[in-house]
Design a protein that fits this description.
The chain is of the alpha/beta class. Helix content is 52%, strand content 12%. The protein has 25 helices and 15 strands. It has a five-stranded parallel beta sheet. A three-stranded mixed beta sheet has the order 7-8-15. A three-stranded mixed beta sheet has the order 10-9-13, with helices on both faces. Helix 10 crosses helix 14, helix 16 runs antiparallel to helix 17 and helix 20 packs antiparallel against helix 21. This is Vacuolar protein sorting-associated protein 33B isoform X3. It comes from Castor canadensis (American beaver).
Length: 586
């Protein structure tokens, strides 16, 4: 989403309203079960819930004890049980087992199931099959938008990616449409919309249907001028590349979860871990989050010197000045000092890990793959990576990056790498390869004619509409990445004279050390310049999205500078992407 950036306009919409709405709705649902109750929470929902309602708020509304929904049986003695869960079959079995155990023991209790963000028919069917549907009351907590930062909203649905792109399950599309509808209800109808991808188009069409049925969004001033809907499979490459800006490296190293990170003793320089919220409110983090890692240590050193200078000002102060300093500045300086120590500790941990991994050699291989040079050497590097058993997830990532940048692996390499991988990491990974192939992440080149050549012959023989259907059928068999052609068309690999200056970034490529401009970012840039997909027909065709690129403009916008807001089904990185594909759980 892009908001026009004008001096007289608010910087960004205030998304704190989304938290208040979610909290109020949850309280309302809890009060539907009057009196004391125990609350069972699914593990996935604990972190999002923590950002919405604290334990003290839950206690105020008569929640007695909190339990995690897990495999071991619950030992609650309360007469009322409330379950806050995702709409998953395993959760229904857990609830049914608990209710049936109570029935066997002759114990009568009240049970309430709150599904988040929505309930599915399949869940109700399981409760019915288990004979407990009549014993429980069901409700929905339509909590689908969590503000993680001033410009980042997450639906916290990591399963969306696998469900849709591997299993072909479209059930979450309604949730996406509902989330977009909520945003337009609260912040004004979006005047201009662009999208690319099959899922993006389905979400858009369902969202538009909801808008047409609801007149509340009409007439309100739009706080967001442009909306882009992009499918993840339009740009796998960006997600597969190693991150080299500070925020990305913190995520890769420590795993940012729901906007916060657990820094262990190696970072805190104590025997305790510390949970830290990473957003714009952390002034130190906010200044370095988008910096290339090579610049971060220098920045933190300078910050430490400035901070010391501010402390040293105390020496020449009289009593009145000292009193003002203590009451107005000292607390802020101490907080900044604490954050500075944490981020210096995090940088040292990242450095240790990356040095151990031989990060420079890894980056060099990635850049060669992106540019299409030394492919044989890069393949050898990946084979060595597998043989040394560095990491099953990292090895998969490199194989996928090789496959997508090369439009699939030649059959000999595909078989060789797959065999070596399973010999090194175990045959239980066989199904993972099937998932990767289905998602178009790791494919084998078709011998002889490529599919695109066949498609072009077919299109000459039949009408455009029929050709479209046949093309769609082909792409569903094996989606081609065409990365090299797209890269050339959109100039994704910058050509620079001399060394790329990472201290003064000249373009979006700095996030990958100047080697690659993120494809999805380039697409948004090009569409915003044109205010449509016009002139990008060849790019759209190469992305296999000829039928799934759309524009809906209702208002001309003359703004030239924008602030971007990101709404995602879940924040991802290369490791999460590979783990979603893996049939072997860590």
């Amino acid at each position: 989403m892009a908001s026009p950036h004008r001096p007289d306009a608010p910087e960004l919409p205030d998304f704190s309203m989304l938290k208040r709405l979610a909290r109020d709705q949850l309280i309302y649902l809890l009060e539907q079960l009057p009196g004391k109750k125990d609350l069972f929470i699914e593990a996935d929902l604990m972190s999002p819930l923590d950002r919405i309602a604290s334990v003290s708020i839950l206690k105020q509304h008569e929640v007695d004890k909190l339990y995690k929904v897990e495999s071991k049986p619950a030992l609650s003695s309360n007469e009322q049980l409330c379950f806050l869960v995702r709409p998953r079959i395993k959760n229904m079995r857990y609830i049914a087992n608990l209710v049936n155990a109570d029935k066997l023991a002759g114990r009568a209790r009240k049970y309430k199931v709150i599904f988040s963000p929505q309930k599915f028919y399949s869940c109700e069917m399981v409760l019915e099959e288990e004979g407990v549907y009549g014993d429980v009351s069901c409700d929905e907590w339509a909590f689908s938008l969590l503000p993680l930062d001033v410009d980042l909203l997450s639906m916290e649905l990591p399963e969306f990616f696998r469900d849709y792109f591997v299993e072909g399950d479209q059930r979450w599309i309604n949730t996406v449409a509902q989330a977009l509808h909520l945003l337009s209800t609260l912040y004004g109808s979006f005047p201009n919309c662009y999208g690319i991808g099959r899922c993006a188009k389905m979400s858009y069409e369902l969202w538009r249907k909801l808008e047409d049925e609801d007149s509340e969004t009409k007439g309100r001033r739009a706080e967001v001028g442009h909306v882009f809907l992009l499918d993840r499979d339009v740009d796998f490459v960006t997600a597969l590349c190693s991150q080299v800006v500070y925020e990305g490296l913190v995520d890769d190293t420590f795993r940012v979860k729901c906007g916060s990170v657990d820094f262990g003793p190696e970072v805190t320089s104590s025997d305790k871990s510390l949970k830290v919220l990473l957003n714009a409110e952390d002034k130190v983090f906010n200044e370095i989050r988008n910096e290339h890692f090579s610049n971060v240590f220098g920045f933190l050193s300078q910050k430490a010197r400035n901070l010391q200078a501010q402390y040293d000002r105390r020496r020449g102060m009289d009593i009145k000045q000292m009193k003002n300093f203590v009451s107005q500045e000292l607390k802020g300086l101490k907080q900044e000092h604490r954050l500075l120590s944490l981020h210096i500790g995090a940088c040292e941990s990242i450095m240790k890990k990356k040095t151990k991994q031989d990060f420079q050699e890894l980056i060099k291989t990635e850049h060669a793959l992106l540019e299409g040079f030394n492919i044989r050497e890069s393949t050898n590097y990946i084979e060595e990576h597998i043989d040394r058993q560095v990491s099953p997830i990292e090895s998969l990532r490199l194989m996928c990056l090789l496959s997508i940048t090369e439009n699939g692996l030649i059959p000999k390499d595909y078989r060789s790498l797959k065999t070596q991988y399973m010999q090194s990491y175990g045959p239980e990974h066989l199904l993972t390869f099937s998932n990767l192939r289905r998602a178009g992440l790791l494919t084998e080149q078709v011998p002889g004619e490529t599919l695109t050549a066949v498609e072009s012959k077919v299109s000459k023989l039949v009408t455009d509409k029929a050709a479209g259907k046949i093309t769609d059928a082909f792409s569903s068999l094996a989606k081609r990445s065409n990365f090299r052609a797209i890269s050339k068309k959109l100039n994704l690999i910058p050509r620079v004279d001399g060394e790329y200056d990472l201290k003064v970034p000249r373009d979006m490529a700095y996030v990958f050390s100047g080697a690659y401009v993120p494809l999805s970012c380039r697409i948004i840039e090009q569409v915003l310049e044109r205010r449509s997909w016009q002139g990008l027909d060849e790019v759209v065709r190469l992305l296999n999205c000829s039928e799934f690129a759309f524009t809906d403009m209702t208002k001309e916008d003359t703004a030239s500078r924008y602030r971007f807001i990101f709404l995602t089904t879940a924040v991802t990185n290369s490791a999460r992407l590979m783990e979603a594909m893996s049939e072997v759980k860590a």
